[in-house]
Amino acid sequence: MSNPTQPTSARFNNPLTTPGAFLVGCNYWASHAGTQTWSDWRAEVVAADLKQLGEAGLQVLRVFPLWPDFQPINFLYGGGGHPFEIRQGEQPLPDASGVSAEALDHFAVLADLAQQNGLKLIVGLLTGWMSGRLFVPPALEGRNVLTDPLALMWETRFVRVFVRRFKDHPAILAWDLGNECNCMAPTPSAEAAWAWTSAISNAIRAEDAAHPIVSGMHSLDEPDENGHWRIAHQAELTDVLTTHPYPYFTPHCDQEPLNTLRNGLHATAQTRWYGDVGGVAALAEEVGTLGPMFASEAIAADYLRMALFSLWANDCRGLLWWCGYDQNLLTHAPYDWTPIERELGLIRADRSPKPVLAEMGRFGRFVAGLPQPLPPRLTEAVCILTHGQEQWGVAYASFILAKQAGFDLVFQYADQPLKEAGLYLLPSVSGGLPFTRRFWCDLEQRVRAGAALYLSLNDGILSPFKEPFGLEVQTREKRTTLAEIDLPALFPGQPPERARFRVASPAKYCLAEAGAEILGRETDANPAFARHSWGQGQIFFLSVPIEQYLSTTPGGFVGSQAQPFWQIYRCLLAQAAVPPRVLRKDNPLLGVTEHPLDANRRVIVLVNYSPQAQSAVLDLAPGWRATEAWYASLPAAGAPLLLPPNDALVFLAEASAWASAP
After folding, report:
1. Cα distances (Å, whole numbers) of residue 65 to 68, 69, 154
2. d(CA 111, CA 88)
3. Residue 34 near residue 66 (C-beta atoms within 8 A)
4. For the CA atoms of the chain, what is the radius of gyration?
């Protein structure tokens, strides 16, 4: 067995666990049958499907051996209704696993066809939940399949037999625990979720230590919530975490049009959150628009193009669309039940491709044709998520603000060992137990040594406060109206109204100055934004939770009511002791990542997170010049750049012999 404490990149020679690698693909059911793929097996249809998908440029399929089709076990009952024997229909079990030999043979055909068409497979082993319907073998109906010992026994047997049969097939890329298995049944505790995950992961590893294990869950939980499927636990027991970032189902996302900034960064922010706090690779395993009620086919293609470049630039290991083929002509459940499951394909029911398929293939060919994998992006800040707050919403808004301001961050929890950085963010601190004293002492030591710290306050209780922040609380009260804060230092020479921000905040802290420099005040002159020197570093304090506010406010980032809160983050970047970027940008709708190849060469990726073309100037640091376009075209010398809607520019920047890297 592999060593679970060894980094996954060292344990596997696999693109899912290799930094800089990126795969494109889709989730696949046969075009004629959906969830009845195996009960209505038609090899000729599957062959045509995989040929079409392979020729379109897809690289990987996530496929689903539907559990009751592959382990069709049922109870026979004796006198008094007591269970007497488990069989397959009327036939005694051929072996102790109860696995269908016919179904395994059908899967072997699919795997061979995938290999013939240049497609790799991520296999969702325990597919008991699919598109809003539960599928379990008849013998296990009515049981909690995540905690019941009988169910766990049969699940383990199935997994071991399946993995043993196909572990050496060249099409296999990874083993997925199953499709959103945390939706199959109620889970009474985090420990129960851990135990189930451990049992299935160990069953896989008992048969195959050569392929990574993919989590495959739907929306992992935050430590402070009542949910039980934790990022840390899945990262402990599997090798690749997964996001299924549909805006409609994810809090704080479905608030503006699909092709705008918030939704454009959704998959990236959530996947980086999982990967950063879990410390393992992360993959956007299911991405889609959920059909024509959310976006036209043309806008869906724009959204996909934007998401692809964004995920790739931020080291998220791939994007798998949901799903390969529309299922609007199918009459069985769940498609009969749920409109949202019918028109999600890359390809229509008549086999004609949608624009999203062309975008997927085009991007896959672009990445495959690069001279080398994309190196890790530079990051300037660590965003620390604390107890008592709605962590995903705060993390999401912080990620967007940093992108707008021109820098990149990584995530961690306050309970984890503190990562090295020149800038630390403690956004929207909430509640009476936000973090421990030992955490604060460690963070304070980093600041005294020269780092910058930013803390925005929701209703959090801090100790100490006066000495490090240079402010003293006089009184605290509940707010009855929006906070109004003037920040003229961020907008020199601008009209006063442009420098005024309005924010919902639960608590007002009346503050007295105690050494801090006041950068902004409420309209009643109460200090609101301040900077205080602390050792060799500095601490920035904001008395309102802009991240929490933005996470819950439709139009908070784009539109006529949007306020430029990103300027606060830009102020932090300007004051922090972090190396400057090669490319400087002012447009908040453009995201930029920089990827050093060596001391004198960087790949720079600009992504337009807007449905309108955006202009920019390639303002490079002295001694640097853009030398080669990897995607799109560089503007003529001195000419402005016009980036098309939801598109990108990728280019190589090189330093002159006398210039040093920033």
Report:
1. 9, 7, 15
2. 25
3. no
4. 26
Give CA–CA dist 68/65, Å, rounded: 9
Look at residue 142 and tell me if it is in a domain. yes
How many domains is the chain partitioned into structurally? 3
* Per-residue buried b or exposed e for 197-232, using 16+ beta carbons within 10 Å of the residue's own CB: bebbbbbbbebbeebbbbbbbbbbbbbbeeebbbbb
* Range of the structural domain that residue 620 is part of: 583-655
Q: How far does Cα 148 stand from its chain's mean position?
A: 31
Do 283 and 399 lie in a common domain?
A: no
Please report which residue ranges of 280-427 form alpha helices under DSSP H. 297-313, 355-368, 391-405
Residue whose pair of structure tokens reads 């003229």 in the numeric block: 488
As a whole number of Å, the end-to-end CA separation of the chain is 44
In a domain, 213, yes or no: yes
Residue whose C-alpha is closest to residue 295's, from 262, 248, 328, 249: 248
Could you tell me the pTM of the whole model? 0.96
The residue behind tokens 């000419």 is: 639
The verdict on 191 and 47 lying in the same domain is yes
Query: Is 298 in a helix, a strand, or coil?
Result: helix
- Inside any domain, residue 6: no
The parts of the chain modelled with pLDDT lower than 50 are: 1-5
Beta-carbon contacts of 192 under 8 Å, excluding residues fewer than 6 positions away, are 146, 147, 228
CB contact at 8 A, 147 and 193: no
**Selection from 660, 577, 572, 586 nearest residue 619 by Cα:** 586
Of 557, 575, 593, the residue that ends a domain is 575
Are 74 and 143 in a shared domain?
yes
∠ CA 189-195-199, nearest 5°, is 155
Distance CA 603, CA 594 (A): 6
Q: Can you give the CATH number for the domain in which 72 is found?
A: 3.20.20.80
> How many angstroms separate the Cα of 300 from the Cα of each of 3, 413, 469?
42, 34, 46
Predicted confidence at residue 5, as pLDDT, reads 47
**DSSP letter (8 states) at residue 600:** T
Give the pLDDT score at 30.
98
Q: In this structure, are residues 197 and 233 in contact, taking their beta carbons and an 8 Å threshold?
A: yes
pLDDT digits (tens, 9 = 90+) for 32-81: 999 999 999 999 999 999 999 999 999 999 999 999 999 999 999 999 99
Cα distances (angstroms) measured from residue 446 to each of 300, 441, 449, 572: 44, 9, 5, 16
CATH number for the domain harbouring residue 630: 2.60.40.1180
> Among residues 532, 547, 575, which one ends one of the domains?
575
The neighbour count for residue 273, using CB atoms within 10 Å, is 27
